[in-house]
Specification:
Blueprint (H helix, E strand, L loop, with lengths): L10 H8 L5 H12 L1 H14 L9 H34 L8 H16 L1 H19 L16 H36 L21 H22 L8 H20 L6 H31 L12 H15 L8 H22 L2 H12 L5
Length: 373
């Protein structure tokens, strides 16, 4: 079987190979040693020397970005090639790619592999991230709890030139890779795949194409949501449930659009598969009915009806019913709930901090019909 390798190269992977940091554990430890530990050490040293508090090390977003979001993005870097390979292998192993479509399938994979291993996009991301760090140093870009004094401390300089750019690079790289997968989905949706209308997954057999949306996007959205909530904690004021509504709606809309938007390109193929299944079952049913009438009702005694045709008739009816229940989207309500929980979990943590206990008691009473003492 062909090697379906996508996302195993690129600028970052080459640097990791040169530095012998190919294992995930080493990458996380090295990243924390570079982006988080120096800021904390320099900040504590500044406080010890000057006797004044260093605001940067008291910024919650700094620690969330380094200790939560960065490890998650590094995990995604390892997850992407595996998720792509496992999903695309299922298309081949289960026979969804007919012989006539193999050249287009191979071309689609080669183009995706070139995009995922290209050094230019990641180089652009790195330069842009560093440029934003320099702009933050000059006060042109707001970053965290940065002190806008005439002289920046060593911890603040390290933060804006190393910590902040590194996270931005990982985030844009994760988005770039998701865009590559979305391009693969779009290309597959334009191919004449051998879909199975009567498949029990009710998605013509290709529901597994939605798995990266949950595994990859849920983790990426959780990382970004964690950082945004940590940054907003010191800048925005929330006092009631109503004040969180715009945040919840915005986060939910972005999550659904980003994760499930590319899956809607398979809605037309699934609808065509449904129509094809119904047409096929109708044709088979018509053929059975004509044969039954021709061979048993017209020339023979109706009392001696055959039994060998009945299983075929039942199978045809099951095929028709299954094809009729094909759902033209690759995800369901359970998948949507899982994605929203992962995205809104950091928002829930912020709500616990800001919303008074009395409001939580009132909400609990409304939900349960009772009263929390």
């Amino acid at each position: 079987m062909r090697e379906l390798r996508i996302g195993e190269g690129g600028l970052l992977h080459r640097l990791e190979a040169v530095a012998r940091l190919t294992s995930l554990q080493r990458q996380i430890v090295t990243a924390l040693s570079i982006i988080w530990l120096p800021v904390v050490v320099l900040g504590l040293a500044t406080e010890a020397l000057t006797g004044e508090p260093e605001p940067i090390i008291r910024d919650v977003s700094l620690h969330v970005r380094a200790l939560v979001a960065t490890p998650v993005l590094l995990i995604l870097d390892h997850m992407f090639p595996t998720a792509c390979r496992n999903t695309l292998e299922q298309l081949v192993v289960q026979g969804f790619v007919p012989v006539s479509q193999e050249p287009r399938f191979e071309l689609l994979l080669r183009r995706a592999a070139r995009l995922a291993t290209a050094m230019l996009p990641e180089l652009v991301f790195a330069l842009l991230a560093f440029a934003l760090g320099v702009a933050a140093l000059w006060g042109m870009v707001p970053v965290g709890n940065l002190n806008r004094a005439e002289r920046f401390s060593a911890a603040q300089i390290w933060y804006v030139l190393v910590d902040f750019p590194f996270f931005q690079f990982l985030f844009w790289r994760a988005l770039w890779r998701w865009a590559i997968w979305a391009r693969i989905l779009l290309g597959l949706s334009r191919m004449e795949l051998a879909l199975v209308p009567a498949h029990p997954d009710r998605r013509a057999g290709v529901q597994f194409l939605s798995l990266p949306s949950f595994d990859y996007c849920a983790m990426m959205l959780f990382a970004v949501s964690s950082v945004l909530c940590a940054e907003w904690r010191g800048t925005l004021t929330f006092e009631t449930f109503e004040s969180f509504e715009p945040v919840l709606v915005t986060f939910a809309a972005v999550a659904i659009l980003l994760a499930f938007g590319p899956l809607f390109c398979f809605t037309p193929p699934l609808m065509r598969a449904r129509r094809a299944g119904l047409t096929e079952s109708a044709a088979v049913a018509s053929a059975f009915s004509r044969r039954f009438r021709r061979e048993w009702l017209e020339p023979r005694d109706p009392d001696s009806l055959p039994t060998d045709l009945m299983p075929l008739v039942n199978i045809t009816e099951i095929y028709r019913q299954t094809a009729q229940r094909v759902i033209p989207i690759l995800f369901d309500v359970r998948d949507l709930v899982f994605l929203l929980v992962a995205t809104l979990l950091p928002v829930g943590a912020v709500m616990l901090i800001y919303i008074p206990v009395e409001d939580w008691r009132l909400l609990f009473g409304l939900l349960t019909g009772g009263r929390l003492m």
